[in-house]
Amino acid sequence: SISRLGPVRLPTAELHLHIEGTLEPELIFALALRNGITLPYRDVSALREKYKFTDLQSFLTLYYSNMAVLLTEQDFEDMTRAYLVRAGAAGVRHAEIFVDPQAHLIRGVSLETCINGVTRGLADSEARYGLTTSLIAAFLRDRAAGEALDVLEQLIAMDAPIIGIGLDSAEVGHPPSKFIAVFARAHDAGLKCVAHAGEEGGPEYIWEALDLLGVARIDHGIRAIEDEMLVERLLTEQIPLTVCPLSNVRLRTVDTLADHPLPGMLARGLNVSVHSDDPSYFGGYLDDNMAQLTSTFALDSSQLAELAANSVRSAFLPRERSGTLL
Ligand code: ADE
Ligand code: ZN
């Protein structure tokens, strides 16, 4: 039956997943031990106690702090494989995965260590874990645009195996307009472009991401519903919105899951799909997001089929591959 808990049964693509947001407390402690790092938490349960967020920034502070345990290629590979095992169990068939290179560069971890480690983890993902994958480098919008452009040039120069770029971190006060040059360069290099917008920021950030950055998808985008003209635009162009319900609840963007705008957005015909953002921090992977949504809103099989199909048609996949999943 539809309400049965377990892996998502419909072919689904994960399009909004930060690999550093999959670091589970147990792995954080294991990597700290391996690297001789002393964490500011007594044990796993003391760390879990910290997973009570009041807003995006309160989460980001812990998310960046826990990255201190990622030092070697092996660390990045182990983190990536741990996610892929879990995603395969959740029923994910394809994942487009964000990595935050600047978050590691500013700690003195090289671009090669980060990119090569994640890439090693992604190799053979279909044979080993049952899902195809691709990598998207996300830039930190609360840092200088010049730094992002510099990192993008390095990624291009090293021929990093990325399909595109994204824009994440603290949204309010860091509008898409700040990154026009970065996204122009990415388009020029043939990279796909996406951006977080309308998570904590208002609809104007979504307009800017579309009009000034030329993004093909909006990550989150839930605040679009505050602007009817924007809703019409998103409807007409069927712009994908990669929505992360458990993330929005945990970061207090919505009060409770029952208040989440997703069912209404789906009913209006918006191209919304469900994703997990930072699953180790927000209480669930893709299957958990789907299970909680399904029970909270009594989603029926046609709504579930629509969400799954939206995720596949919004993926950066060649038609041959998306056709096998639709
Ligand atoms: N980085 C990781 N998760 C994020 C989120 N939900 N919003 C913005 N930046 C992020
Ligand atoms: Zn995100």
Strand and helix order: EHHHHEHHHEHEHEHEHEHHEHHHH
CATH class: Alpha Beta
The averaged pLDDT comes out at 97
**Strand content bin:** 5-15%
User: How many helices?
Assistant: 17
CATH topology assignment: TIM Barrel
Name the ligand types: adenine, zinc ion
Q: What gap, in angstroms, lies between the N and C termini?
A: 21 Å
Placed side by side, the strands forming the largest sheet appear as: 1-2-3-4-5-6-7-8
CATH architecture: Alpha-Beta Barrel
Q: Write the CATH homologous superfamily.
A: Metal-dependent hydrolases
Protein structure class: alpha/beta
Helix content: 40-55%
Radius of gyration: 18 Å
Overall outline: globular
Biggest beta sheet attributes = 8 strands, parallel
Count up the domains.
1
Give the total of beta strands. Answer: 8
Which stretches are poorly predicted, pLDDT < 50 over at least 5 residues? none
If you had to describe this structure to a student in words, what would you say it looks like?
This protein has 326 residues and is α/β, with parallel strands linked by helices. The protein has one domain: TIM Barrel. Helices cover 48% and strands 14% of the residues. It contains 17 helices and 8 strands. It has an 8-stranded parallel beta sheet. Helix 11 links the parallel strand 6 and strand 7 (241-243). Helix 4 (73-90) packs parallel to helix 6 (111-122) and helix 8 packs parallel to helix 9 (180-188). The longest helix has 18 residues, at 73-90. It is globular and about 50 Å long. The two termini are 21 Å apart. Zinc ion binds at residues 16, 18, 168, 196, 219, 277.
